[in-house]
Design brief:
Strand content: 15-25%
Number of strands: 17
Bound molecules: zinc ion
Distance between the termini: 55 Å
Largest sheet: 5 strands, mixed
């Protein structure tokens, strides 16, 4: 059978790597981008489908590098609306401990659908809740990923340090180190795909210094190296956490990270706010990635990630919406806009451009997930892209199309392609009954709160 060729023709604007003119559009063959055409150029061979993009701004598919899908069930919950991280967690843990398989499936569908409609094509989730009856949480998420046709890096999270051992989470939410490592290995062997074009991958993700034992950090790093998968955790999110590390381990967060064997290019960290200059230098030298989560950091008043300093030191930076109990949106375009504004407060207007934050949401995020086949529009890359229209009221009177997406606040993609297949068409996910999903998800959210 001949290859299926699609021409995304003459886009209004296209976000290509610097120096590549893509105004003639992109040619997709099967799962890959095979040609990026300069203005006035045509494909080198006939195409089966021509998608006229004259009204569209084309971006690489956005990549989300930190989320907790299950938290869509506890958005805007009054008892925690005005709390910072530690009390916020302490209030939510007992609610989350009641999570059941059907509710997680609905929560994952809602989070992924919302991400997809915002132009996100690859999502990472950090799931660390495995109370009794939830042993197959990641297996449930794998099924949802397949339904939506997105790419996902599902991290097998863990909590092993309960209140009785001086940790933060309640005892019924933690597992033994043995159970965690055994399940981690099972998931890697069963689901982790390798190489270009992978749809589903697994990483290991002890939740945070205050919810796992030192042993599980060390053993997770050992297992990740043995199996060649990535490592993820929350780090340096708040000063409470820094204080916890000093009291329990006698170490600052990055010293602890180094001690447990995590300071290297295999790891990426959510938040990464409270670092001193020496720590930034060491993270950069190690090539450890940082996922910036601006909305969560603003909502919980945690602080501002030193993104440009980390990058200058050599640490890749990407973006994440974080869990929906601290955002509470799963919209990566919205997050990208917030990254621009929050980072301008730290680094000034000249250095934080729309191109800069879009780079974090695409190429930067791909680096965090260890992928070189997604995140950019150039020949040889996977055909993952998002197309936005600029004819809504909010864009009227705008001039520069790429700047308009960010500054006027684009929130919903019109078309999204993943691995050469259309997964959003005319602003909707084909075959998905959103009204029904919302009704079932709302009922599950009410039941969880009790
Ligand atoms: Zn998080």
């Amino acid at each position: 059978m001949a290859a299926q060729r699609i021409w995304i023709k003459n886009p209004l604007a296209v976000f290509t790597p610097e120096g590549i003119d893509g105004r003639g559009g992109l040619v997709i063959e099967n799962q890959q981008i095979v040609e990026v055409l300069a203005s006035g150029h045509s494909p080198s061979a006939p195409c089966d489908e021509i998608k006229d993009a004259a009204q569209h701004v084309v971006l690489p598919g956005l990549i989300n590098t930190h989320h907790h899908f299950y938290q869509t069930l506890t958005r805007a919950w009054a008892p925690v609306v005005n709390q910072p991280l530690f009390p916020w967690l302490k209030t939510l843990y007992p609610v989350w401990a009641r999570l059941r398989p059907e509710a997680l499936a609905l929560a994952s569908q809602v989070a992924m659908a919302e991400l997809l409609l915002s132009g996100c094509t690859t999502a990472s989730d950090h799931h660390y809740l495995f109370p009794e009856g939830m042993e197959e949480a990641i297996d449930i998420q794998v099924e949802v990923v397949k339904q939506l046709g997105m790419r996902a890096l599902l991290t097998r999270g863990s909590m092993s340090l309960g209140e009785e051992q001086g940790g933060l989470p309640p005892q019924q939410t933690v597992q033994s180190g043995e159970a965690i490592l055994e399940d981690s290995l099972r998931l890697i062997r069963r689901y982790h795909q390798r190489g270009a074009g992978a749809q589903i991958q697994i990483a290991l993700a002890p939740c945070s210094p205050f919810s796992v034992t030192e042993e599980i950090m060390t053993e997770s790093a050992r297992l990740a190296t043995q199996e060649d998968v990535r490592l993820h955790t929350h780090l340096a999110e708040t000063l409470d956490e820094e204080q916890f590390c000093l009291e329990r381990f006698g170490l600052r967060t990055v010293d602890y990270l180094e001690k447990v064997g995590w300071l290297g290019p295999r790891s990426w960290l959510a938040h990464g706010i409270h670092f001193n200059a020496d720590e930034i230098r060491r993270l950069g030298a190690a090539g450890t990635g940082i996922c910036h989560c601006p909305v969560s950091n603003m909502r919980l008043a945690s602080g501002i990630c030193p993104t440009l300093d980390l990058e200058a030191a050599g640490a890749p930076v990407g973006l994440g919406v974080d869990g929906s109990a601290s955002n509470d949106a799963s919209n990566l375009m919205y997050e990208t806009r917030q990254a621009l504004y929050l980072q301008r407060l730290r680094y000034g207007a000249e250095r934080i451009t729309p191109q800069k934050v879009l780079g974090w949401a695409t190429r930067g995020s791909a680096q965090l997930l260890g992928r070189s086949d997604i995140g950019e529009l150039r020949p040889g890359m996977q055909a993952d892209l998002a197309m936005f229209r600029l004819d809504e009221l909010r864009f009227s009177g705008s001039h520069d199309p790429i700047a308009a997406l960010i500054l006027c606040g684009a929130e919903r993609a019109d078309y999204v392609m993943i691995a050469g297949k259309w997964r959003v068409v005319a602003g909707a996910i084909p075959d998905m009954d959103l009204d029904s999903l919302i009704a079932r998800h709302r009922a599950a959210a009410s039941a969880l709160i009790g």
